[in-house]
Amino acid sequence: MKNRSVILVSLITLGLSLLAILGGVLHLTVPLCWWGDTLCGILFLLAMASQILLVYLNDRAVDRHDYLGQRLHRRGYFCLSLIAGGLLLIMLLNLMIAIVYTRRYDPFIFGAIYFLYFAIPTTGALAARETMLAVKRGFPRRRGRRIRGPVKKRRFKRTAVVLSYLALFIGAAGLYFLLGGDRSVFFESAPQFAEIFISGFSLFHAFILLSVAVIVLKLQNRPGSAGALFVGVLGLACFALNLLPLMGTPATIAAAEEVYSGTFGSAGVEQPDGPSSEKHFQNKPFSLPAYFLGMPPGEYRFKKDVVFYEGSSGVDRGLELRCDVFMPPEDRIDLPGWGTALIRIHGGAWIGGDKGFANMMQVNKYFASRGYTVFDLQYGLTDLVELTLPALQSRVGPPGLIGPYTLDDMVRHLGLFTRYLASHADEYGLDLDSVFISGGSAGGHLTTALALALSGGGHPDLFSDELKIKGYLPLYLAIETGFLPEIGVAPEWIDVKLLVDENSPPCLIFQGKKDGMVDFRTAGRFRETYRALGNDKCAVMEFEWAGHASDFYFPGYFNQIWIYYMERFMASHR
Residue 528 maps to which CATH number? Predict the structure, then answer.
């Protein structure tokens, strides 16, 4: 019976691994339809799952002191380590794209990603083949040459067990944020770094934790014991629960399409003033292979640390504000965003954060490669408020930007940038009648304040009147946070809903329903403010399993869907 099970799973693993390799090649070389691309991704997931199952079955069947059994036992450790470590490296390598400004390292980064992606099913195919050969030679009948000496040093084994248990318990604890959302005890004061790395990365967690659980079972080698049962159940539970965001993706896409088309019409890619630019847009809301293989940025140019304001008096004395500018390749007027400015404002609870990596820099690269000129801004950060958790009191941001700045000062700093933009429009080849603004969390609040104030025209002393806001796109809109009155003076910056009128520009909002820092109902209440004034140009995309900053992983479930609609929103309103 054991032989039959092992042979069957070996055959399945071999077949799925070869198909996964083929699917990865097709994804990278051939434009696939949605279902074909999804099938390629599913084959990769099934190949990993069957490989983990094969390792587990081998470990239960082999005599570890037998020559063939020992080879399969060690091969199992290698397979599991490659899955866990390979997936972790793929995740980190994809994040590196958002760290480095230049495209110089992209071939090396994506080369490493592709190598690891294909190495996992290749190793699975080899493991399946070796298992079938071992069965043919008499496995698991305990034949062959005996291995002399200890198999593992005890100290190394104990360390490996402790580290594996630690990884399992951390992964299980992370599920609290995934499942709890705004019902968690950390609501409005959650450690943001925890939420960032839960929901958007859950597919990595699923297979990493399942692999770690089988590693623990192999190390302890106590089949049928209470400890083995506990580890097995914990590993399977972590695996299943971390698959929930992926399983919910079709429903998320359907809901997003309904919201978008119901508010703004078809999510087509025809521009009102030109031919179709479909080849420059994502052709599907979500690609499962791209979740692992990444989304390489196209061509772009950039200028780093461009100074747009130097303070010389008052609270701004010594303050220097900079921006990064990401520009499209020269003379590409065929790109859908050509001549349009996208202003991006970082989050960080008004006390921290920065442009660049902290503001999901790969978004800048992506839209610059689509023709937009993207400005990633700094503004003054406040030290007038203390948050409740020590982890958030470190004020991770450039020290020179932190001071006794109020919301009024922050909005004024953004207004200074609008004057800079107006005076440098020709330098960047911009049409000032086509400007968009986007930002997340605290940046979502400032995005909304800037867009509404500019379009309303009621603050000519703060902003350039040459800019025309065609739309704005806040994410996890933090406009009802309790300490806003502590750092604000003017009521319209404390409650930005006061700025909404019947002519306010179109608005598309990203909101996760598992957000432990911003109540997801906030975005809905803001939309109702639009509707109460007879303005139906505000739409809220609610992502069922998304937490705070769940767009941090660029090729993740939520950000892929968001970018798909974000680029269509801007193309249709520019």
Answer: 3.40.50.1820
